[in-house]
Fold this sequence. Notes:
Strand order of the largest sheet: 2-1-3-4-5-11
Oligomer: single chain
Structural class: alpha/beta
Number of strands: 12
Number of helices: 15
Amino acid sequence: MPIIPGLQQSNKGTEIRDIASAVGIKELSEKNIAIELNIEIWYSIFNIRIKRFRLASQQDVAKMANVSYMTVSRVVNGTDNVRPETRDRVLAAIKELSYYPNAAARALNKKRTNNIGIILPKKEYLLTAPFYIELLLSIEMHLRIKGYSLFLGSMHSDEKTKDCSSLYKEGKVDGLIVFAPAGNDPFITKLVEDDIPFTVVLGRSDDVEYGYVDVDNLKSAATIIRYLLGLNHRKIGFVSGNLIEVNAADRLTGYRTELEANGIVYREDLVYYGDWSLESGYNALNSLMDLENPPTAIFCSNDYMAMGVIKAAHDRNILIPEDLSVVGFDDLQYSSFITPALTTMSQPIGGMAVEASDMIVNRIENKDYELKKVILDSDFIIRSSCKEIPAI
């Protein structure tokens, strides 16, 4: 006989017996009282959760705001023919109910996908350049607020012009955000010629007209070199990123220009050409410290390579910063948690994400939108990986 009187005859009892059967309980008996009661409790909690997390509809918003369904629709779609007090009431209901407009329906109505394609230089960058992931997540958050989703399309390759442009031409996305293209990338030229809405992040061109957001890499590199010179370092090594990318080339230029501006002879042997990865940082340390006249400080073009440098230094019993000062670039989330905490140049991820999101959405929604070229400043973060040495 059932433990709970009338359970087997009730609708809830039938559902609980179904649940019990699914987990291997063939009958309700005194032998499984604990399991049975747990199922009863679980059932009650489950019912509460179903009610609590049911997605609000446009009708729910209309009912709470005491307006018509069409009024809610006009507010959601941003039309002007709604009185301010009514709009405020609808927006308050939307916030209270955590209502999210049906993206598919809105996209169909506006003949858009509400998707924005992301084009990375190489798929490997998702693993070897964590900064790209942090920036990508920040852009995704800002675009989601604006009602858009990210679509990770074809990466740069031999067929990149065809593949990436087709994302837009086939109606899969409304526009593109291109990460770190080469300065003379034919893919970018093709996007401009085809009038495809796009924005570039971490790159720019003086020859092709398009909107972009980047940081002042020349100024940032110069700031780092001045700091190390102020600590009396004169033999400063440099680990570059992939020089086909404008930001990597600018950091090398800033390094060399600032050395020469301070009367320091540029030494080609103190430059290691890396690829943003941990491994290239590790190899750079070994290469630079094997020189007959090795550096006393190393400036790495990103934090990831700086971590590789620090690991290789540890393996060679080189103390950071006692024997060698190290500076990174990016200020990744875990750069302050390694030992020693990394001195680095902090890129404005939030600012770049906001600018890139605004640019591409405005470009999509307003064909007459004036292209913007935004260069942001970085912040120099001094931690524990550098040390002053005696003046020569």
